[in-house]
Write a structure and sequence with these properties.
- This protein is α+β, with helices and mostly antiparallel strands.
- It has two domains: 1-36; 43-181, lipopolysaccharide transport protein A fold (Sandwich).
- Helices cover 17% and strands 56% of the residues.
- The chain is built from one helix and eleven strands.
- A six-stranded antiparallel β-barrel has the order 2-3-6-7-5-4.
- The chain is elongated, with a radius of gyration of 29 Å.
- It starts with a helix and ends with a strand.
- The model has no long low-confidence stretch (mean pLDDT 82).
């Protein structure tokens, strides 16, 4: 049997290229792992109560079973994965109660995203229920594009998409589905 130097050279080059490919592949995967950062909170708290004040007056009290703070991500936010209960106070001390199964506060926007069994109730027995609601803290304004149910002493109304102030004094509906009057 005779050895052809060209064939031996070709097989040697092919073996080296294969070995380099396997070596680079494994290094490439290691480099990819370095660039992947875990998405984990930079802060965590259990059973919290936060009081927001302005000029010595309480404006809101927020209670949550769990709070996760993602302050180090590109778009920082705070998450309340087990829901929140919020009490809002107006200038006369009148309260509005807000509850949801989940909440996220986006830093820099002053917007809170409330989701899952969202209920807002005033002291005078007005109640709005929906699956998702946004709260603009700066303007004390709520809004949603989702279906909602609004119950007041005069009756019940349904709709889809609404925005309103925290006392339900101003309400703008998008798709109103009528009102059912209660008998007195």
């Amino acid at each position: 049997m005779r050895f052809n130097p060209k064939i031996v050279f070709s097989y040697t080059i092919a073996a080296l290229i294969s070995a380099l490919n396997f070596g680079c592949e494994s290094n490439f995967k290691e480099v990819q792992k370095i660039n992947v950062s875990e998405f984990s909170p930079s802060g965590e708290a259990d059973s919290i109560t936060l009081k927001y004040t302005d000029s010595g007056k309480i404006k809101a009290i927020l209670k949550g079973e769990k709070m996760l703070d993602y302050a180090t991500v590109e778009y920082p936010f705070t998450e309340f994965p087990k829901g929140v209960e919020v009490t809002l106070y107006d200038s006369k001390g009148k309260r509005t109660f807000v509850r949801s199964d989940h909440a996220m506060q986006f830093k820099g926007t002053e917007i809170i995203d409330l989701s899952g069994n969202v209920k807002i109730r005033t002291e005078d027995n007005q109640l709005l229920e929906t699956e998702q609601l946004y709260y603009d803290q700066k303007n004390s304004w709520f809004f949603t594009e989702k279906k909602y149910k609004f119950t007041a002493p005069k009756g019940v109304s349904y709709g889809e998409g609404v925005d309103f102030d925290k006392d339900f004094k101003i309400m703008n509906t998008q798709k109103f589905k009528g009102e059912i009057e209660q008998s007195e």
